[in-house]
Amino acid sequence: MNEIVVGHVSSSYQLLNFILFLKLKRYKNCNKYVILDSYFKQATFSKSLVDSLDKIDVKILNRGFRDIEALIKGNKNLILISPGINVQYIRYFSKMSFIKIDDGIGSYANFLYRYKAFIRERGISIKVGVFPIWYALMTIIEMIKLKERFASFDNDSYRSCLTGFIEVESGLVEEEYALFCSQPYVDIGVLTESEYKKILYCAEKLAKGKGIPLKILRHPADRGFDYSSYEVINTCSIFEEFVCKNKNQIKLVLGINSTCLITASNIFGIESISIQNTFFSKMTNNFPVKIKELFKKSSKKVDV
User: What total of structural domains would you count in the chain?
Assistant: First the structure.
């Protein structure tokens, strides 16, 4: 075996897409590994997805790049499967090919969108000044090394593989409800609690208008807001897994500008609504064209 496959993922959503790609492409004659490198420190990876790695013969590299160094000694080539190329992979440039998997709407972002997101999520630091150089370098390397793109949206193979991979639980159909997908905007200081409550109140009204209750599915990094007055779903599953198992009960998906809104409509055929205040309305208007097209096609917008 002259090739090794390494996935480098920073969220459960990326891990899901890595697994689905391998299930479609097989790579039976290669040793397969994954590095779990969480983007948000307080977030963890879906246990069910991590447990499924054994079934497809994928081993977790606990020491990251030090493990890769040992694995590719000699003449072995590296197939990297990830939403992007970490700067440390430059050392394997001559031996590497790159397969790009989706990271939600972030995969369709341009420089300005990613730059603003980086500042919003990581804060102002010396890294902000280095970001443009890093972005230009990684973009060039990705163009040179890109072997294949594995898209989540408008992809029939992805849709069928996802629904086939996740085992749908059988049983009695429970009550229908609307699902609000949270995002950690209070945690990172983008929204005040008062502003966020207005969005949740709007979500409640929209659910009530359809005669169904509202339930909250928390983002893994959403830890700061108090949801004690709401019904929060207690699950370790990520959105795609949860909806696949409960799509007969979920009649409406609500959120701000989460990838979940696009996934709900594009993959599962569930109505989705984006709830936006003035700040997010301006943000949406400044989205790259591809992201705006995805939201326009997949979700309806409601202002608060």
Answer: 2
| Coil, helix or strand at residue 148 | strand
In the predicted structure, residue 122 carries a pLDDT above the cut 80? no
Residue 18: band (very low, low, confident or very high) from pLDDT cuts 50, 70, 90: very high
- Mean per-residue pLDDT, 131-145: 89
CA dist 45 and 51 (Å) reads: 10
Residue-wise burial string across 187-206, b where 16 or more C-beta atoms lie within 10 A, e elsewhere:
bbebbeeebbeebbebbbeb
Tokens 């804060």 locate to 123
Q: What is the pTM of this model?
A: 0.86
- Looking at residue 119, its amino acid is I
Residue 218 has pLDDT above 80, yes or no: yes
Note whether 207 and 230 are same-domain residues: yes
**Residue 35: enclosing H or E segment and its boundaries?**
strand 31-36
- Sequence-distant (6+) residues with CB within 8 A of 216 are 179, 180, 182, 227, 230, 231, 232, 233
Please check whether residue 264 is in contact with residue 286, taking contact to mean a CB–CB distance below 8 angstroms: no
Q: Domain containing 35: what range? A: 3-164
